[in-house]
Amino acid sequence: MASVITSNTGSGLALQPDASGQLQFSTGYGGTQLTLANNVLTMGSTVNVAMGANSVMTMGDGSQYVTVSSFGMRNRIINGAMAVAQRGTAISIANSSFAYGATDRWSYNNSTGATITSSQVFDSTQAYGSPYYTSLTVASCATSGFLDFSQRIENLNISDLAGKTVTLTFTASFTATGGTWSGLIYIGYPNTNPNDYSSITYLTPVSFTPTGTPTKFTLTLSLPSGVYNGLTIGPIRMTNSGSSSTSITFAFSSVQLEVGSVATPFERRQYGTELALCQRYCYACTNRPLGITLNGNALYSGIVSYPVTMRTSPALSNASCSVSGGSVGTPALQTSSGQASTLDAGIIWNTANNWNTNAAIAITAIFSAEL
Questions:
Q1: For residue 68, what pLDDT band results from cuts at 50, 70 and 90?
Q2: Of 145, 293, 130, nearest in space to 214 by CA
Q3: Which three-class secondary structure state does DSSP give residue 286?
């Protein structure tokens, strides 16, 4: 049994006490709507829960959910947990350059005066909220130098958020010897055409101050209509306005962008899912069998089928071949009419025209369709 509180349209509120320690709520619409027993709240089969526009559901661990979008595939960032590193776990980025580094989908501006190393780092303590984080290290940075990270989001994955409120969260740390450092978060979108980041409009940057301890940062903002063309999260930049600085390390992970004004817990996707999302923009292969040579520059079946449909016809880089005999040649993607690479596959040939006939060929390469 239970103590029963009943609300009837005619007689009003009625109380029927009981010593069981359980509590039931019912209305004049029939049946028991709510039962509270042993700290468990059970709803009746005809109960609907309506939450207002600004309502927030708070869980026992303090995490909050504000909309249906809070559940499942809510993070618009790809590889926010830094788990995928197809290009390698440590990549050098030259001074005065914009380049993609170790962890997939993340790009970097280096204006330090020295070479930056972008590394995927495993951390069993998960101090950054995930088992992996990205570390940017550089030996020195001149006055007015900076380093940053960013991710460009394809318009197809962000255009529905135009004009809506979103929340960005990430965990970061920063250490340096000397210098005067400050941090700014930039958010921008292509000016004219979808996914054309040659010209970007940036919103007013927001300052942040990372320390040597991994710290979670949260930024809530309204996206303009221009995000129909895409969105860039970042540059998230550290700038040295003081004297020359040395031993700089900028690390980050658990990056999430979601609809709404509440930062929900970081969304953890399976590795296979995250890898497939990354491979739309970059596919790296090692000693992938291609086939047998037909003659000096052609193969009987030199086709690389990409694991997923790529964003656009990719560019080939870091390509080399291993062969069963003779010259390794100079591999390239076929671009001639009728043989050009597609979004799903590419034809490999040898521009040096020096393969041995009937040699087995395998390729190591990066196919990039990044923004």
A1: low
A2: 130
A3: strand
First to last CA, the chain: 64
Element (H, E) at 278: helix 271-279
- Those residues with Cβ within 8 angstroms of residue 244's Cβ, 6 or more apart along the chain or in another chain: 140, 141, 142, 143, 178, 179
Q: What is the pLDDT of residues 37-52, one digit of tens each?
A: 777 777 777 666 666 6
* Number of other CB atoms surrounding residue 16 within 10 Å: 12
Share of the chain above pLDDT 70, in %: 87
Largest CA distance in the chain: 97
Three-state secondary-structure class, residue 227: helix
pTM: predicted TM-score of the whole model, two decimal places: 0.85
pLDDT of 246 > 90? The answer is yes
For residues 58-71, average pLDDT = 58
Q: Which residue has the tokens 């990205």?
A: 134
CATH number of 90-277: 2.60.120.260
What does each C-alpha distance from 39 to 2, 16, 21, 23, 236 come to in angstroms?
14, 20, 10, 10, 45
| Cα separation, 193 vs 162, whole angstroms | 15
| Residue tagged 């996707």 (tokens) | 269
Residue 31 predicted with pLDDT over 70: no
Euclidean distance between CA atoms 122 and 135, whole angstroms:
10
Nearest to 91 by CA among 99, 82, 79: 99
CA–chain centroid gap for 57, Å, is: 25
H or E element: which one contains 122? strand 116-122
Token pair, residue 319, equals 């390509």
299 secondary structure, DSSP code: B
Closest CA to 148 of 233, 241, 216: 233
**Phi then psi dihedrals of residue 34, to 5 deg:** -140, 140
282-341: per-residue pLDDT in tens?
999 999 999 999 999 999 889 999 999 999 999 999 999 999 999 999 999 998 877 777
